[in-house]
Amino acid sequence: MKSMKLEINEIHHGDCLDLIRQLPSGSVDMVFADPPYNLQLNRDLYRPDRSLVSAVDDGWDKFDSFGSYDAFTAAWLGECRRILKDNGSIWVIGTYHNIFRIGSVLQDAGFWVLNDIIWIKTNPMPNFMGTRFANAHETLIWAARSRESKYTFHYRAMKGFNDDLQMRSDWVIPLCKGPERIKDRGRKAHSTQKPEELLYRIIIASTNPGDLILDPFAGVGTTAAMAKKLGRDFIGFELEKSYVETARERVGKVKPVDAQLLEYRNEGRLPRVSFGSLVAKGYVSPGENLVSEDGSFKARVQADASLLCNDMTGSIHSLSASLTGRERNNGWTYWHVEREGRMVCIDDLRKEYRKEYLS
């Protein structure tokens, strides 16, 4: 890693532009950014019972105009692109107030958009006055540093995360509440604290253990907390001193997951090996008998790696399917061969072949 002027695994207090300029170019693997929404609220919001709504009215969310917001966005996005590695990526979250402006600036800066993710809130704030649809989602843009970037994406991990269904771009996650919601003297410590599950998914999906993650708007430290938990390094910038103190205390309590549990064991596709390769290399010889897993059938190996059983012939897969009355069957686990007085699954022979010739 290139030499850092700023300490990593720390939340730094200060303006994000001043701090990010101290980072060396090409030093960060992933950026997660939750910038000001620029909500343009010009009056208090009340419920029908006239109680005041706790809306986002913090000073950090106020800008003079769209032009000043766009200039601010271009400045921090430009610096994020500079400090990202060539194969790095960025995630930016926003609402309808700002995400479309951010998306335009992001593309103009040279980033390559990969996906937009819709975070669907299971418990959104109602539209109390009944003047619009209830706003029940936020949008995340995931983009690579450039079109040529070989960005990280753990597709199989996310599929497993989603009960073996391909992970879609609509994520149903509740707003943080209960013990997860950070409090300060009984009130929300931060008005737009993001749920830990959101950052957990993002980090698992698009980074590797040991990667460095930057959050230029660290807030109360959700990104940093999940990075530490998942064995990633982090660096956070935050303008509000009270948020910095809260984030540091929060991150200090996080216990990292054991490193062995962070390995992506299901990610890489194993090199393809045909049964014919085992025959050609002598792992199984023409004339040998293969026996079905339950011992009911015996098939003789032919020179062309097909099998012959009771005048039926076919590949290890098609013959096993015919014998079991199935449309398809995995011959690698169905057939066994005798070795040193015991029956060995031919899939174990395939593993030996991979280890000797393809590792």
Overall description:
It contains eleven helices and 16 strands. The chain folds into two domains: 10-262, Vaccinia Virus protein VP39 (Rossmann fold); 275-358. The protein has helices at residues 16-20, 66-83, 99-108, 155-161, 196-206, 222-229, 241-252, 275-280, 316-324, 331-334, 346-358, and strands spanning 10-13, 28-33, 84-94, 112-120, 137-144, 170-172, 183-184, 187-188, 212-215, 233-238, 289-292, 298-301, 307-309, 312-314, 335-339, 342-345. Helix 2 (66-83) crosses helix 3 (99-108), helix 5 (196-206) crosses helix 6 (222-229) and helix 6 (222-229) runs parallel beside helix 7 (241-252). Residues 44-48 have low confidence and may be disordered. The longest helix has 18 residues, at 66-83. The two termini are 28 Å apart. By secondary structure, the protein is α/β, with parallel strands linked by helices.
Question: Gist?
Answer:
The chain is an alpha/beta fold.
Separation of termini? 28 Å
Number of helical segments? 11
| CATH class designation of the largest domain | Alpha Beta
Counting DSSP E segments of at least 2 residues, the number of strands comes to: 16
List descriptors.
alpha/beta; Rossmann fold; 2 domains; eight-stranded mixed β-sheet; six-stranded antiparallel β-sheet
In terms of topology, how is this protein built?
Layout lengths: L9 E4 L2 H5 L7 E6 L32 H18 E11 L4 H10 L3 E9 L16 E8 L10 H7 L8 E3 L10 E2 L2 E2 L7 H11 L5 E4 L6 H8 L3 E6 L2 H12 L22 H6 L8 E4 L5 E4 L5 E3 L2 E3 L1 H9 L6 H4 E5 L2 E4 H13 L1
Parallel strand pairs: 1-10, 2-3, 2-9, 4-6, 9-10
Antiparallel strand pairs: 3-5, 4-5, 7-8, 11-12, 11-15, 12-13, 13-14, 15-16
